[in-house]
Design a protein that fits this description.
Rossmann fold
C-alpha cells in the first residue's frame, strides 16, 4: 500500500515487481496522462488491474482514456485515436450524440457502477438550494466596468491569446461577485465589498442557532481568509483547511470530535478525500462549471455515517457570470447522465467560454 506521491518517488521499487493484482483507489489522480504519476501508474505490471473512483471524469473524457489505459491498456485505442474518435466530437456544442452513444456502449462492459443509494440505502436525504443575492452598488459598478473592458479586449484578441484573456477576465468577474477585497482595490470599505459575506452571515447565524454544523467551500483561498476575522469578531469557533495546511488529519479530527460549528475549506484542497459527517450543512460561496467537483465537495458531509439530512446552499449573484455558469452546469449534467450517468464532458469548449460574456 502506498500513496500517489510515493508511487511517483519509488517507481524503481514498483517496476521491479510483477503483481497479481494492482488496485488504484481515487483513480482520478491519474486523470491527466501527461502527469508523472499517471505515467508511473501506466507502467505498473499486474496481471489484474482495477481502478476505483467516484469521479471517472473531472475535466474531459480524456480522463477516461487515462484511467482505462491503466486498467485495460489499448482498450480505448491510442491517445491520438481516442482524441480523434471521441474527445474532439464530444467537445463540440452540442456534442455528437452518435459518438456519445458509441463511447457509452464501449465502456459498459468494463465499468461496474454502484450508486450511493445502492450502498447506503439508509443515508438521509440531500437538499440542494440556490440562494440568489444582488451585487452591492460598489460591486455592480466594478463588475460592469470589468465586463465592458473585457469585451473590448476580447474583440481585439485572436486564437490562444483570446482564450487566455477570457479566462483571466472570468477570474476577475467571479472574484468581484464574491468580494471586492479579492481584487486588491484601494479604498474599498468592508461594508461595500461583498453581498455574499452578508448573505453568508445570515445563513450561518440561522444554522448555528438551529444547532447545525457547517462546511463552507470556496475556490478562492483569499475569500476564506476574508471570512476568518469576521468569524473571530463574532467569537464563532472554526476550523480551516487549504493547500498550505500541514496537519490536515488533526484539523479534520478536531472538527469531527468537537463541537466546532464551522469549517472553512478550499475546494481544491478539501473537495475530496475527507469524511466530515459531523456537518449537516454545506455552503458553496462560488460556483464552478464542473458540477462533479461541487458534488464531491458536498459529499464530504453526505456520506456513510451521516445521520442527518444534509442541506447544501449555493450562493449566486443575479445578472452575472455566475448565472451563466449554472446554465453550463445543467448542460454538463445532461452529458453526464447520457454517458456514464454520473460523469461527462466537463472541459470548457471555446464556444462555452465565450458565451459567458454574452
Amino acid at each position: 500500500m502506498t500513496s500517489y506521491a510515493l508511487l511517483r518517488r519509488d517507481e524503481e521499487i514498483w517496476q521491479a515487481r510483477n503483481f497479481d493484482v494492482v488496485i488504484l483507489d481515487e483513480a482520478q489522480h491519474i486523470k491527466n496522462p501527461d502527469a508523472q504519476v499517471s505515467k508511473v501508474a501506466h507502467r505498473l505490471k499486474g496481471t489484474h488491474r482495477f481502478a476505483l473512483t467516484g469521479t471517472p471524469i473531472e475535466n474531459s473524457v480524456r480522463d477516461l482514456w487515462s484511467i482505462a489505459h491503466y486498467a485495460l491498456p489499448g482498450y480505448l485505442g491510442s491517445r491520438k485515436d481516442f482524441a480523434e474518435r471521441f474527445e474532439k466530437p464530444l467537445s463540440l456544442n452540442p456534442p455528437d450524440d452518435s459518438v456519445r452513444a458509441r463511447l457509452s456502449r464501449r465502456l459498459k462492459p468494463v465499468i461496474l457502477r454502484r450508486l450511493k443509494k445502492d450502498v447506503a440505502k439508509d443515508l438521509p436525504d440531500k437538499i440542494e438550494q440556490i440562494v440568489y443575492c444582488d451585487l452591492k452598488p460598489k460591486q455592480k459598478e466594478v463588475y460592469e466596468k470589468l465586463l465592458r473592458e473585457s469585451k473590448a479586449s476580447l474583440l481585439e484578441a485572436e486564437g490562444g491569446k483570446q482564450r487566455m484573456l477570457a479566462l483571466t477576465a472570468l477570474l476577475r468577474l467571479r472574484q468581484t461577485c464574491c468580494d471586492l477585497r479579492l481584487l486588491g482595490l484601494q479604498d474599498v470599505k468592508d461594508e461595500d465589498a461583498s453581498v455574499k459575506a452578508d448573505t453568508l452571515n445570515e445563513l450561518l447565524e440561522e444554522a448555528i442557532e438551529g444547532g447545525h454544523r457547517v462546511l463552507i467551500f470556496s475556490q478562492f483561498v483569499e475569500m476564506l481568509q476574508v471570512l476568518v476575522p469576521d468569524l473571530a469578531a463574532k467569537k464563532i469557533d472554526f476550523c480551516y483547511l487549504d493547500g498550505q495546511t500541514k496537519n490536515r488529519g488533526d484539523v479534520v479530527k478536531r472538527f469531527q470530535e468537537n463541537e466546532v460549528p464551522v469549517f472553512l475549506i478550499s475546494l481544491k484542497a478539501g473537495g475530496v478525500g475527507l469524511n466530515l459527517t459531523a456537518a449537516d450543512t454545506v455552503i458553496h460561496i462560488d460556483p464552478w462549471w464542473n458540477p462533479a467537483v461541487e458534488a464531491q465537495a458536498t459529499d464530504r458531509a453526505h456520506r456513510i455515517g451521516q445521520t442527518h439530512v444534509v442541506t447544501s446552499y449555493k450562493l449566486i449573484t443575479r445578472g452575472t457570470v455566475e448565472e451563466k455558469i449554472l446554465a453550463l452546469q445543467d448542460r454538463k449534467r445532461a452529458m453526464t447522465e447520457s454517458l456514464l450517468s454520473e460523469a461527462g464532458e466537463a472541459k470548457l469548449s471555446a464556444s462555452e467560454l465565450m458565451s459567458l460574456f454574452d
